[in-house]
């Protein structure tokens, strides 16, 4: 690659990053401004909006709720999906086509329609879990399933599962010992990608959280929605804090 092509590619990357970061930088500027109206630059800089936000116990509780539900759903998904994927890949490879159809189902039904059905199913009876975090964990499992399955499935295809297990069998390991000590460590990159993709998507989910739980177990997105009529500087600080939390976790 010539020096001109290298500089061209670097310029394109910088422009793309600038375009992506410009709205975030503008939001950060508004969150730090005392007032910003008719002038190009803000009248002053202050941290009072961030101090007010992080001093709000309701915000901290909503943030904790969001992290708890997201990590709970991801842990449940991994504990259920990883063994199932190993069984499918090793013993029933023909079921992979069926799974490719099943993982598309969460995208085929709009969340609003799904929420109405879930409200009717779980508002009464032995599983009256509407308004509790348990129903959100189940919904988030369905949302995260396509991301987790596809990322890990691609990783399984890349590591050549059959040769790894055959080599482990020759060394005296059982199938499940090989799965735990040989296959699983080789899937760490696929698992990490699946977790990061799913977490970034789940923490921003609003429809299920608002319709099924609302303020009874307020999440970060529901809190942001309830604060929409407050100061624009305060909500800007909330958005920046949300991005920082996602950045730190991922």
UniProtKB/TrEMBL annotation:
Its main location: membrane. It is a multi-pass membrane protein. It is found in: Cell inner membrane; Cell membrane. The chain crosses the membrane at residues 12-30, 67-92, 98-122, 134-152, 191-212, 232-249. It holds the Pfam family BPD_transp_1. Residues 63-250 form the ABC transmembrane type-1 domain. Belongs to the binding-protein-dependent transport system permease family. This is ABC transporter permease subunit.
């Amino acid at each position: 690659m010539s020096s001109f092509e290298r500089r061209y590619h670097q310029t394109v990357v910088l422009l793309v990053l600038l375009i992506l970061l410009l709205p975030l930088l503008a939001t950060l500027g508004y969150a730090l401004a005392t007032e910003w109206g008719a002038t190009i630059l803000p009248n002053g800089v202050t941290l009072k909006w961030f101090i007010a936000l992080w001093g709000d116990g309701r915000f901290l509780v909503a943030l904790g709720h969001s992290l708890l539900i997201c990590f709970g759903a991801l842990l449940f998904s991994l504990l259920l999906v990883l063994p199932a994927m190993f069984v499918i890949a090793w013993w029933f490879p023909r079921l992979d086509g069926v799974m490719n159809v099943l993982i598309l189902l969460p995208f085929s039904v709009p969340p609003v329609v799904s929420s109405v059905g879930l409200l009717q199913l779980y508002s009464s009876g032995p599983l009256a879990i509407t308004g509790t975090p348990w129903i959100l964990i189940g919904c988030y499992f369905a949302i995260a399933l396509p991301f987790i399955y596809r990322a890990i499935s691609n990783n399984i295809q890349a590591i050549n599962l059959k040769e790894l297990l055959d080599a482990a069998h020759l060394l005296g390991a059982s199938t499940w010992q090989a799965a735990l000590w040989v296959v699983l460590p080789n899937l760490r990159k696929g698992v990490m990608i699946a977790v990061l993709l799913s977490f970034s998507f789940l923490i921003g989910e609003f429809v299920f959280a608002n319709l099924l739980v609302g303020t009874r177990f307020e999440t970060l997105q529901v809190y942001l929605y309830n604060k929409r009529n407050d100061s624009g500087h305060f909500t800007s600080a909330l958005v920046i804090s949300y991005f920082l939390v996602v950045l730190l976790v991922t």
